[in-house]
Amino acid sequence: MAPSVEHFKFRILIVGAGPVGLTAATALSQDGHSVTVLERHPDLQAQGGTLTVQPAAARAYTHIGLGAALAAISITGHGLHFWSYKDSSGPIGVVSYGNMKAFMTERPAVQRMAYDASIVAGATVSFNCHVIGLDQNALPVRLWTADGREYTADLIVAADGIKSKIRQMIYPDRDVEPVPTRECIFQSQVPLHILISDDRVAPYLAPNTAHGTLGPGKFSICRATADGNLAMTSIAMDYGPPPAQGDINASWTMPGDPDELRDMFKAFPVPQRAYLEHVSKCTKWRIAIAAEIPKWIGKSGHVILVGDAAHAMVPHAAQALSQGIESVVGLAQILRWARPELNGTDLPQLLERFEKLRRPRADKFIKLSLNNAGNHSLPDGPQQEARDAQLRKLGDEQPNVDWDEVVIDIDAPERSMEFTKWVRDYDIVAEVNQFMTAKQ
């Protein structure tokens, strides 16, 4: 059976107008669904750091006609150059993206791109709409906002982030608050026109490159931005006791101290120390991890969590946004299988199949991101030496790989060619169609 061209058209409410929610609005509206997005803020948010749209997520954007728009707000990356904190002479290894490209960009730019596309596709985006109540047992499902308005829909898509209110509402008897950690991330940017005059920073300025520097208890990633800056993310794994729950909910991001940042990374290579000399301001972001939940779908089968609301992960696989993008493009694709003659009654079954398809991939990246955090911050010693040797080996081997001959394998060892191809060559639309036509 193939997806129906005349599939059932649902009335859909999306909670949250971040990049994932607005990408969902675009994909679903393009397929003829009636889509309204409810966002609690008064406008699109200007804050947000650098991020990478991974090759598989970029392919998902291409499926909904946003490939060129993504390229216009991004710098393409062809590999990640890994440095040791002890060595200023150059990278110890380069992990290639193979025959694919990653798109290095910034959260506000992706959000604006998806917003513009959602409006063109016919979605309604309503700001100042703070959701305070949900009745998932009613048909249609209902929710209420703080201004007293009631909304109804066939499907509610919760894209309201790691602090999701909808997640709390569908799990009222479970602690699903994010769990603060001891980790802290500092984000900074310096204009390229300033750095170009400093020869010490030159290794970081090679076109289409990203650079990661690994040290005991801390590491960093830097890359150029499309608007003419070099952005650096600096990670301290043991910054101190996590803030109280109320504090972290009040503000994820707060002003940082550039002098503190310079002091923390004073033992790192010359290019990084030189870059930090030019930093005049920075922000810091205390990291939390998501509470585990048994299902992404509410008990009625008409509410689903997506993005960080469903599968938040620490940022050390650079996959959090990309997994949200894959998921919502996949959700739109799977709803094409809704049979018109069933009048939407097959929605719960379709959502169950969606989670069955998507959850193993998201869970794999949750684990990978945690593993990367530990692996990138190893203390000096045998484990660190083995890691560096593996990076050197990858840098030597990957340029000679015939990626067309590599077989995708989700269960292969991390950093193997087979696993790497599964990470990068995944095609969400093809995966949905293959999954839906296979015998269950």
From TrEMBL:
InterPro entries xrefs: FAD-bd (IPR002938), FAD-dep_Monooxygenase_BioMet (IPR050493), FAD/NAD-bd_sf (IPR036188)
Cofactors (names): FAD
Entry keyword set: FAD, Flavoprotein, Monooxygenase, Oxidoreductase
Coiled-coil residue spans: none
Gene Ontology MF annotations: FAD binding; monooxygenase activity
Family affiliation: Belongs to the paxM FAD-dependent monooxygenase family.
Protein name: FAD-binding domain-containing protein
Protein source organism: Fusarium oxysporum f. sp. lycopersici (strain 4287 / CBS 123668 / FGSC 9935 / NRRL 34936) (Fusarium vascular wilt of tomato)
